[in-house]
Structures are given as structure tokens and as C-alpha cells.
Amino acid sequence: MSSAIAALVTLEVILMIGIPIATVLLVKKRWSLTMRLALAGAATFVASQILHIPANSVLARVLKMETQPLIIQTIVLGLSAGIFEEIARYLVYRFWQKDARSWRDAVFFGLGHGGIEAILTGLLAGLTFVNVIAFTRVADPATLGLSEEVLATALAQVESYWTMPAYMPLLAVAERVMALILHVSLSTLVAWSFHARHIWPVFAAILWHATANAVAVYANLTWGPVAAEGLTAAITLVSVMILWQMRRALPGESTAVETA
User: Fold this and answer.
1) pLDDT class for 257, splitting at 50, 70, 90?
2) What are 34's strand-pairing partners?
3) Which of 11, 28, 106, 116 is the most exposed place for a label (fewest CB within 10 A)?
């Protein structure tokens, strides 16, 4: 077991969980917003995944995804994520958070949406870390009752885990921060549909979400994680530009202030 990797993964888990929580609390205090906006954003992400994950399984079977070229797989999965998450975002704005129409409201909502994804990713990383440590400390893995094939695969995965490049945990944190910015920009774009009185901003959000996901996954599987995060950084710059434009297009002040 590598103590350096263990320390970095621990830091990764702490940052993935801590950054979105700290950001939400800071923005809430600075803008005097009600926490329900961030919580609604978090609930929107979770609700979208309840349908999104089974839909991906159906798509995989119907389209025989394993036989499709990688570019087709990434486009289909990207569109799936965009459709389910952005439509869920729109429906929550339309029927639940009806007063969340300002730029600040949309930003806070997006922090909740992307924040819960980062937190859940951090928790999953932590669970994987615990399982790897537990497996590593087994004196004789053969006593676990696994088949030879499964045991060989597990041993290879554990070895790969402890010999991963030291930058990988921090790269994962950077990816979550950039994904958080993406979600914030998408939340403002969908909110704009109510001011523009057109549905096209929702379709634009779906396409931008799908593009971001497809590019990141394709690059990661083709050129590796460093190249993927480099392209994701470029995507993040565009997301920041969208966020800046929406700041000019949407009302600035929130009407959903903290009353408690």
C-alpha cells in the first residue's frame, strides 16, 4: 500500500465533499439566499438519475452499445445525460421553484445540482478507497472464496490503484470543480428560457451538456485523463462565458431571500 496515494485519495475525498458544501454556505451567506434553492438543485439531480440510469441500461440493450463505435457511444450517453438533467431542471423551475428566476437564484440552484453530484462522487471514491484498503490487508486473498479469474482481476485492480500516478486524485478534484461550473452555467441558461419566453435555451442547455460529457468521455478513453481534463478546461471557459452572458440577461437580485 502506498502511503502517498492513500494521503492523496483522502485529500481527494475531503475536497470533493468539502468544496461544494463550503461554496454553497459561502454563497448563501453572501447573497442571503434560502437554502431551499440549493437543496432543490440537489434533489433535481438525484431525481433525474432515478430515470437516467435505467434509461441508459435500456439504450445499451436496444442500440447494442458495445458494438457501436466509441464516438457514437459517447454522443448517445452525452445526449442522455443532457436530456434527463436539463428537462428535470426545467420542470423544477416551472412547477416547483417558480420564484427562482434571477441570476443569483439560478447560480445557487446550480451549485446544489452540481454540488450533490460532486459529494456523491466523493463518497463513492471514499467507499472504493476503504474497499481497496480492506482487500490489501487480507493476508491471503485466496481465502476470500473468489474464483481464480475474479481474484486475478481484483488483484490487478488493487495493484493498479496503488500505482496510479500521484496527480490522478487531484485531477479528479479539478474535474469535479469544472463540472460544478458547468452545472451552474446550465442552470442559468435554463432559467433564461422563462425570461426569453422560448424553449430553445433548454435545448441549448441539453446540447451543451451533451457536448461537455461526450468530449470528456471520448478524450479520456482515447487520449487519457490528462488530455480529457485539458479539453474539459476549455469547455469550462465556454461555460464561464455563458454564465457571464446570463448575468447580463437575467435579473441580478434574488427574490428568494432567507426569511428564517
Assistant:
1) very low
2) none
3) 11
Contact (Cβ atoms closer than 8 angstroms) between residue 249 and residue 110: no
Cβ neighbourhood burial of 118 (10 Å; 0-12, 13-18, 19+): buried
Q: Is 9 exposed, middle or buried (0-12, 13-18, 19+ CB in 10 A)?
A: buried
Q: In this structure, what C-alpha cell is assigned to residue 148?
A: 481464480
- In the DSSP assignment, the letter for residue 139 is S
Q: Report whether 105 contacts 191 (CB < 8 A).
A: yes
Q: Whole domain around residue 182: which residue ranges?
A: 3-249
**Dihedral over Cα of 255, 258, 35, 247: its sign:** positive
Q: Are 193 and 90 in contact (CB under 8 A)?
A: yes
Whether 178 is covered by a domain: the verdict is yes
| Predicted TM-score (pTM) of this structure | 0.90
State the pLDDT confidence band at 224, using cuts at 50, 70 and 90. Answer: very high
Residue 89 has pLDDT above 50, yes or no: yes
Contacting residues for 76 by C-beta, under 8 A, at least 6 apart = 59, 63, 65, 68
Classify each residue of 59-94 as buried b or exposed e, where b means 16 or more C-beta atoms within 10 Å of its C-beta. beeeeeeeeeeeeebbbbbbbbbbbbbbbbbbebbe
Three cell numbers written together for 61: 440493450
User: How many domains does the chain contain in total?
Assistant: 1
Asked if 88 and 117 touch (Cβ cutoff 8 Å), the reply is no
Return the axis-axis angle of helices 168-196 and 3-31, rounded to nearest 10°: 30
- Is the predicted pLDDT of residue 113 greater than 60, yes or no? yes
DSSP structure string for 184-225:
HHHHHHHHHHHHHT-SHHHHHHHHHHHHHHHHHHHHHHHH-H
Q: Kindly state whether residue 117 falls inside one of the protein's structural domains.
A: yes
Please write the tens of the pLDDT for every residue from 7-55. 999 999 999 999 999 999 999 999 999 899 999 999 999 999 999 999 9
